[in-house]
Amino acid sequence: MCPVPVQGGLGSNSNRPRVYSSYSSRIWGSAGWALWLVNTPQTDIAGRVWNGNGPIRGYQDSQSLAKILAIAPEAPLVFDVLYKNHDEGYLDAQSLQEILAQSTG
């Protein structure tokens, strides 16, 4: 398997999802979608992306995240974020669960 970037994004705004600076990358296997690498972009005061591997918790555009992940809902999710402790990972998992629950129901 090798990483395959998703082309483009969901808008022209720099804090919108894009693979090179956002939360949605895919790993492609012979059977189709294998897994999602999930993170969010963090922007500076001017709106420029400075970190493409930010946490899910607190991300303002959760609908975009839900739309991207809905492309292959059966694919496992892997957080592609550097956490300081286990609590941050747990809070991201809770946030993502809430985002996905809102988008499906």
Question: How would you concisely characterize the structure shown here?
Answer:
By secondary structure, the chain is an alpha+beta fold. It has two helices and six strands.
Overview features:
6 strands; 27% strand; disordered N terminus; globular; two-stranded antiparallel sheet; 105 residues
Fold and architecture overview:
It is built from 2 helices and 6 strands. The protein is α+β, with helices and mostly antiparallel strands and 105 residues long. The chain has one domain (2-104). The strands form 2 sheets. It has a 4-stranded mixed beta sheet. Strands 4-5 form a two-stranded antiparallel ribbon. The chain starts with a strand and ends with a helix.
Give the SSE map.
Elements: E1 2-4, E2 25-29, E3 32-38, E4 40-43, E5 49-54, H1 62-69, E6 77-79, H2 86-104
Parallel strand pairs: 3-6
Antiparallel strand pairs: 1-2, 2-3, 4-5
- The average pLDDT value, as a whole number, equals 75
Rg: 13 Å
Major sheet: 4 strands, mixed
The number of domains: 1
Strand order of the largest sheet: 1-2-3-6
Shape: globular
State the helical fraction.
Answer: 25-40%
Annotation field: number of helices: 2
Q: What's the total count of β strands?
A: 6
Please give the alpha-carbon distance between the first and last residues: 33 Å
Q: Class by helix and strand content?
A: alpha+beta
Low-pLDDT segments:
1-24
What percent of residues are in strands? Answer: 25-35%
Order of helices and strands: EEEEEHEH
